Amino acid sequence: MAGNDWINSYLEAILDVGPGLDDAKSSLLLRERGRFSPTRYFVEEVITGFDETDLHRSWVKAQATRSPQERNTRLENMCWRIWNLARQKKQLEGELAQRNAKRHLERERGRREATADMSEDLSEGEKGDAVGDVSSHGDSNRGRLPRINSVDAMEAWASQQKGKKLYIVLISLHGLIRGENMELGRDSDTGGQVKYVVELARALGSMPGVYRVDLLTRQLSAPDVDWSYGEPTEMLTLRNSEDSEDEMGESSGAYIVRIPFGTKDKYIPKENLWPYIPEFVDGALNHIIQMSKVLGEQIGGGKPIWPVAIHGHYADAGDSAALLSGSLNVPMLFTGHSLGRDKLEQLLKQGRLSRDEINSTYKIMRRIEAEEFSLDSSEIVITSTRQEIDEQWRLYDGFDPILERKLRARIKRNVSCYGRFMPRMAIIPPGMEFHHIVPQEGDMDGEVEGNEDHPTSPDPPIWSEIMRFFTNPRKPMILALARPDPKKNITTLVKAFGECRPLRELANLTLIMGNRDGIDEMSSTNASVLLSVLKLIDKYDLYGQVAYPKHHKQAGVPDIYRLAAKTKGVFINPAFIEPFGLTLIEAAAHGLPIVATKNGGPVDIHRVLDNGLLVDPHDQQSIADALLKLVADKQLWAKCRQNGLKNIHLFSWPEHCKTYLSRIASCKPRHPQWQKDNDGADTSDTDSPGDSLRDIHDISLNLKFSLDGEKTGASGNDNSLESEGDADRKGKLENAVLAWSKGVLKNTQKTGYIERGEQYNSSGKFPALRRRKQIFVIAVDFDAISGLIEATRKIFEAVEKERTEGSIGFILSTSLTISEIHSFLVTGGFSPSDFDAFICNSGSDLFYSNLNSEDGPFVVDFYYHSHIEYRWGGEGLRKTLVRWATTVNDKKAEKGEQIVTAAEQLSTNYCYSFTVQKPGVVPPVKELQKLLRIQALRSHVIYCQNGTRINIIPVLASRSQALRYLYVRWGIDLANMVVFVGESGDTDYEGLLGGLHKSVILRGVCSSASNQLHANRNYPLTDVIASDSPNIVHTAEECTKSDIRGSLQQLACVKG
């Protein structure tokens, strides 16, 4: 409570009151209540009757009260409240200590187990476990950031990039994004991140070797926002386009591409975007595929040009980028900007909201899970500062700097990491464009240098808007540029200015706090900060010394910096924590010395620029002293200005992009695996009546005929194709494909196309689902096959007419193995040909029905395995899972019973299965997922069949991702898919309900599963399911075939 003198004053007043409540001389008003119970009074009157954030107002009232009795009563009330706050603080500190201790123990246990698995002798690099060894955390050294510092070096690097034609995708979803006149500060979602991603896209588009950059965001046509946010595409003007005209092409450059998702006519804050993320992913996937084909026609010789990387910004875009990366099998990058775990810790420390209230307000647990998923999926995590790694990322289960160092040392020695992976942390501070900036050389007493030809040129409009506030506008200006957010600490700055008379006499204060029309129209948090600032101005009588204009344009921000420099002022960023501090770079570029918080990115910036002073943001006196020192000492001011201008080139966008592209080049290239030099399969023309010979050749390389499907998945170390007896099977495969291709040739040569009536019964095209008008996906989760049989029959009967015509194809999507699916078909009286495809083992295997029954009923798609095998833990993961199952049995089993058992007969190379005897005793799915992440094992844990089975599959595999694979692989339009689910299901249930596809929820089906599997989720299902989506309908309670058809008619999937 340092610096809050009013607290000390009323504490002294409380001491003056005398003994406490237990004494006979307690206050008169309290004694007059009769039977006084301190506990009851505390609960009923103090806790529920007062706002703990308003103690100062209560003290003012108590101080102004003339009646000694009433004053004593008010002071006793405040004594109780202070005791309550102290108790809350102590409780919060205890909870924080417990959380930290638990996290430390889990980390230590995870490291020990991981090290035990990696049993080889440790190298010297692996032995160093000192947390303070920061060199393991990022790619930069302790000194200045390693950057190019000469024009010659940049030109040499640029010449090496010529000839490359890179396609890069950036994603930033929330806020309002456009290329010009950005509305920064309009709300908490439209801030520095918006400017950063737009400038990054523009800078990358200007770099040699980069052909196209797409910045994907949300399309919005709401009445309360500008029409420009509804434009599907906006081309960004490149700063140095004249230097790369020879590389320009029809579709080259940098673009903002707006994807419609969510309610198009309504602005949605980032906390409420989560239910619509799958819809964005599907729309973005469609754009990227189409653009890849267009670029392939222009510069790829007809072969698609896939993105070299997909880069997500913030948690929502990171989640989207991970799904897109998995759908396309391309590398992913991630930048957190601000992190959920750090925010949760800060909110819990404040003690104003409970954990449940925090989650309800900020959807913080969904955000944290998205950030963990981004760590699982990313090749590189880009940070602005070392502080972000040291103090924020280390809070996550998926990143441990000590284990990361061990893994990196093993990789350098070419030693196996036993399935463990850690994303690489790269420190790349944001860049800035400096070529258009001319530092202010004049001052308020003379003309600006270089203006001799136009001595009377008008001042920028924003200058008059600011200077009209000041009695003496020629005094040095202290400039703060931040939205009115509590964490920006603007009120402390105003207090420091108001209470330091020498500073008030020497300088003016300018507060650029975003744009506003009226205080009542602002969010409650922002309005509260602004009102506090206005009250402080009135309290200290700062009229004529503080400017706080209501409006400014983004294009006018450089003019604001110029005005501050013209007055020989200072820029200040007093935020409690500043992840980076881009405004500090901008201020330095305009010749302004800086005063900045010592918490976060400004430390790194100051180390490079050495152009100001760092302060403790909680120390009001320290802030005032630093400002006064720079304003009063002209020699120090000039030295800081000169240092900033001399070193600012180290933060230019070209250097940022050079480092950025170098990091991308270090990633192992990945792309859809069926795009081979000898494979010209034309998947773009999906309506073509016949397949080309190249398509047949493609299939012969990728599909394996199987009678039972067990152990058909192939991993990198699987030699099943070379086992005894496989030669006959391979020969059989070749003969089958040869006969099949002859049938296609005969059919296509004879007629040139397949007649519509024969099309759906012909074996001339594979797979059959490519010909369907619609695809119905049965993804109903039962713990017994009988229930699945009944639901399947109802769905078949509901669309019997369309099914007979062949216009509708069916996919079975389930946690069952292919052997269990075969049993299901036999038991239910179904034929494998009733389904076009089978997504089994929770999405880790994909089979097609075989039209040639002599070679077995199913065909496995091996390309799907190569598509999902990214970061699959293999044997190292299996050992950890077996150890976990043994631990669960030892702790919770009785009399030697086995609660969790490894199910070898149900497992495949890409799915490790366990059977569960007592689902209620097994730890929830989030605990197992956390255990694996702590050990750097990246996987997707799914509790299936009402908790009786656990499937662990690759991190980027799922049933919903398998549907996207079918779109990428075969061109199956996601908008023409209908997914049937129950009222609940497996723990991957939420992924089946979002996206462009339509969903039918069968009432009364799987209604009991939710209590068992979803009670211990990290976040409630309501946070991620769009209940208002027109693509989701419920059947009637009876769920008859007529009800199902009625729901399909409601979705306009079938006619009445």
Automatic annotation (TrEMBL):
<feature type="domain" description="Glycosyl transferase family 1">
    <location>
        <begin position="472"/>
        <end position="645"/>
    </location>
</feature>
<dbReference type="InterPro" id="IPR006380">
    <property type="entry name" value="SPP-like_dom"/>
</dbReference>
<feature type="region of interest" description="Disordered">
    <location>
        <begin position="670"/>
        <end position="691"/>
    </location>
</feature>
<protein>
    <recommendedName>
        <fullName>Sucrose-phosphate synthase</fullName>
        <ecNumber>2.4.1.14</ecNumber>
    </recommendedName>
</protein>
<dbReference type="InterPro" id="IPR035659">
    <property type="entry name" value="SPS_C"/>
</dbReference>
<keyword id="KW-0808">Transferase</keyword>
<comment type="similarity">
    <text>Belongs to the glycosyltransferase 1 family.</text>
</comment>
<feature type="region of interest" description="Disordered">
    <location>
        <begin position="96"/>
        <end position="146"/>
    </location>
</feature>
<dbReference type="Pfam" id="PF00534">
    <property type="entry name" value="Glycos_transf_1"/>
</dbReference>
<comment type="pathway">
    <text>Glycan biosynthesis; sucrose biosynthesis; sucrose from D-fructose 6-phosphate and UDP-alpha-D-glucose: step 1/2.</text>
</comment>
<feature type="domain" description="Sucrose phosphatase-like">
    <location>
        <begin position="883"/>
        <end position="1002"/>
    </location>
</feature>
<keyword id="KW-0328">Glycosyltransferase</keyword>
<dbReference type="InterPro" id="IPR044161">
    <property type="entry name" value="SPS"/>
</dbReference>
<feature type="compositionally biased region" description="Basic and acidic residues">
    <location>
        <begin position="103"/>
        <end position="115"/>
    </location>
</feature>
<dbReference type="InterPro" id="IPR023214">
    <property type="entry name" value="HAD_sf"/>
</dbReference>
<dbReference type="InterPro" id="IPR012819">
    <property type="entry name" value="SPS_pln"/>
</dbReference>
<comment type="subunit">
    <text>Homodimer or homotetramer.</text>
</comment>
<dbReference type="InterPro" id="IPR000368">
    <property type="entry name" value="Sucrose_synth_GT-B1"/>
</dbReference>
<feature type="domain" description="Sucrose synthase first GT-B">
    <location>
        <begin position="167"/>
        <end position="434"/>
    </location>
</feature>
<comment type="function">
    <text>Plays a role in photosynthetic sucrose synthesis by catalyzing the rate-limiting step of sucrose biosynthesis from UDP-glucose and fructose- 6-phosphate. Involved in the regulation of carbon partitioning in the leaves of plants. May regulate the synthesis of sucrose and therefore play a major role as a limiting factor in the export of photoassimilates out of the leaf. Plays a role for sucrose availability that is essential for plant growth and fiber elongation.</text>
</comment>
<dbReference type="InterPro" id="IPR001296">
    <property type="entry name" value="Glyco_trans_1"/>
</dbReference>
<dbReference type="Pfam" id="PF05116">
    <property type="entry name" value="S6PP"/>
</dbReference>
<dbReference type="Pfam" id="PF00862">
    <property type="entry name" value="GT-B_Sucrose_synth"/>
</dbReference>
